[in-house]
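input
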Amino acid sequence: MIRPFSLSDLDSILQIEKQSFPKSPYHRTTFLNLHCLYPETFLVYVNPPTSQPDVSNSPSTQPQAGRVSADMEQGYSVIPKGKNLDSVELIHPTYDQKVEIFGYIVFSRDGHIISIAVHSKHRRKGIGKQLLQRAMRTLHLKRVWAEVRNSNHGAQAFYSKMGFQMIGVVPNYYGNEDALIVQWSPIA
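output
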């Protein structure tokens, strides 16, 4: 099941990130920033929840002063209402908080795949394909693209299988390694 990222997912995402990108994993702060910048396109793939909590008696999504950090610890998602976190809306979790995160994707509103990764024990089961297809099905996108390490032949094969074409190279994008630019465009 694919759903939006929640702050309660962060530790699992960090584990997947370190395992998938040992040379240059994103830091906790990076994911928090991505969550604020792309709340609608930061998605996680989870095992189906065993139950969904009753939200009929859920508290208001408007936090009281001093409640934000306590609410965040209970799995609320923080949605910025302005350009800073002084004004936020808390979204009550609607999923069982004991689900296992199998993978994630973050993409920008213009189609740039910022990061995609699947936990190693769940690879080759179609999870990455489903996450990428979600980005590819975003109606307003004229193209979807990503950078891939020149040495990452597995990722290159994955993108190729998904219909992406290599369109360019960025020298030393990863410090001492080039990035290949892969792109997909919907058929008009």
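quick obs: Strands lie at 2-4, 42-46, 77-80, 88-91, 101-107, 113-118, 144-149, 165-170, 179-184.
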